[in-house]
């Protein structure tokens, strides 16, 4: 009988032990959270902004045999490439084919001549060169061109710099506010980043600038021009202990 009783007591203890341990953990967590809540702290938001120059301008180009009567697509392509070389553009790295098409379907249904069309993507690194491309293409009859978008190759580096500046500004703001009430800040106990997206110059606005520029300076020297800068910003929320 005693053996049975000891066995039941032992089983009961083993069954209750996990529940007791979990309850103790929850109590400890609640105590810790309450202590954190009760600690005096200051909460600030740091904001930083930067404007950067775009160094990658993407131009979409389309050439078609339909635009050059009596010339093959290869002849038009050669004419275009020679003109780009005259502008000291790196053909190997900055020009690529993105599509090749034909009106083969129309040949069967409408009995028209087969005409080839080729699409390219050209990268230039400043607005003046982009304007020269539009200007020289206009001279040789390539008019189906448009500015797709502008980028900055080092934008991730600048984003990181802006975030660091935002943290530094948050710390300075917290220090000034604490000093105003005769206190000092301690270590940061909470940091939250608020996502910010860069503003980029719109392609339509940039394309209008280039089109207008090339019309005005068709027979003149191209002045130095630039696009609207890319604006990036970052904001962080930080809590510091008060001492």
- The secondary-structure element order is HEEHHEHEHEHEHE
Q: How many H/I helical runs?
A: 7
Q: Report the count of strand segments.
A: 7
What does the main sheet amount to?
A: 4 strands, antiparallel
Mind telling me the C-alpha Rg?
33 Å
Indicate the CATH class of the domain at 56-151.
Alpha Beta
Oligomeric status: single chain
What's the N-to-C terminus distance?
64 Å
- Strand share of the residues? 25-35%
Structural class based on helices, strands and sheet pairing: alpha+beta
Looking at CATH, which topology of the domain at 56-151 would you report? Alpha-Beta Plaits
* Strand line-up in the sheet with most strands: 3-4-2-5
Helix coverage percent: 40-55%
Task: Map the helices and strands.
Layout lengths: L1 H37 L2 E12 L3 E9 L8 H14 L4 H4 E8 L1 H7 L5 E9 L2 H14 L4 E7 L3 H26 L4 E10 L8 H14 L13 E13 L1
Antiparallel strand pairs: 1-7, 2-4, 2-5, 3-4, 6-7
Helix pairs in contact: 2-5, 5-7
